[in-house]
Design brief:
The protein is built from eleven helices and 19 strands. Strands 1, 2, 3, 14, 15, 16, 17, 18 and 19 form a nine-stranded antiparallel β-sheet that branches. Strands 12-9-8-13 form a four-stranded antiparallel β-sheet. It has a three-stranded mixed β-sheet with strand order 4-7-10, with no helix packed on it. 31% of the residues lie in helices and 22% in strands. With 409 residues, it is α+β, with helices and mostly antiparallel strands. Helix 6 crosses helix 7 (240-267) and helix 10 crosses helix 11 (382-393). The protein has helices at 2-14, 28-33, 154-162, 168-173, 189-193, 196-208, 240-267, 278-297, 344-350, 368-375, 382-393; strands at residues 37-38, 42-43, 48-53, 63-64, 72-75, 86-90, 95-98, 102-107, 111-112, 117-119, 124-127, 130-131, 143-151, 220-227, 230-237, 300-303, 313-318, 324-330, 333-339. 41% of the residues are buried.
Length: 409
Amino acid sequence: MKFRVLALVLITAFGAPFAGAADEAPDPISSFLEGLTIGEGTATAELIIFPVLAAEAPEKLDIKPAPWSENVGYSEPDLPKRRFNVGVANNEPGLLLLLGGTILGGGHRDRVFPQDVLIPAGARVEIESIAAAPASDQRKEAAPFRVGSALAPPYIRERAEFSPTNTLVPNFVSHFLDFRNDGDERKSLSAVNASDKLTKLCLPCHESLAAFPTSDEGRVVGVVTAVRGRVRSLELFGDNRLLKAWFEPLLKSQTFAAAAIAVKAKKLRMELPDQGTADETMAGLKTAAEELLVRVQKAKFKESDTPKNSAGEYWIFRTSNSTRGAAISNEGRMLHMAVFPYEPFESALFGARVKAPGEDDDYGDYGQAELERKSRFGRLTEYEKRLLGRMRSGGMGLGGGGAGGGLRR
């Protein structure tokens, strides 16, 4: 009896710990995640993707996924609240979804948008962006704006979402300056995105997956992508139409990074992550994709700040293994979610700026042991000294972490 009285006093004083929790409506992101499953994977030359399937095809959203439309205008504000902010005018008749990772060339310096933004019809919103090129690429005269054909690679998108800095993208781009087209002197992600070499490397993947988003009668609402034996991202959209609109930019961002990793790691004498046999890899990756989806389904979603004058609700979350993600919804409907598991290989490879060698430098034949041997006799050139310094510090992913890790944990 005393225990029952004490329990009643505690509940009266402090409230039942979970009172009303069962009656609260779940957030729109959690509601959308219910019942999603992972389908069978498709392997291409550079990556493996798995469809994320809804139990039934969601109702179509009234969203315009067209940041590259002529009806969308971009400008540099005269007095921006932050240095690289961009004014985006939505002259479309409906809401406009601009995904984080969108590359915007033009203005006085190329940019990347770090997070999703939903722009009302007829509105002009000042959106935060970060530099996609170093200060040496600053233009004296502003160039016309042009939206890139690919999103930024997952490594950039994950860090831009949670730690946007103006050194992030230039550091990454410094690894790929030799991928630029002949005569293209830009040190920008826009130049790498426009590379004919990378387009050719990515083409087989695009051809293999041309019909991917149209399968299963509109039930495909997302994709899990794996590269080099590791899951790289989980992308979900509110309906199949929205996924189809963004699928090509997503695919190009993934295949660009996959092909670039292979070529650059070979030049830096880094071993690619093991993959095993094709069957083992596919089975293991599907299990990893399913585990990632389950962790996201169990995650707690927290509302984050809404960009001024934008529409929608913005969410962030962290899974049980500290993988971070973000999502956007509007009027109770989930629009987009992006999850990027932590990838230490890419952090080591892209975490620090490198100086691209000259055309005559035999970059692929340098090994740290050989350079160490030559240094003992004082026979290193200035270029070799810089190269050895980066190897020793880990700035090229060849040392023991050091300054080049760029790790978030």
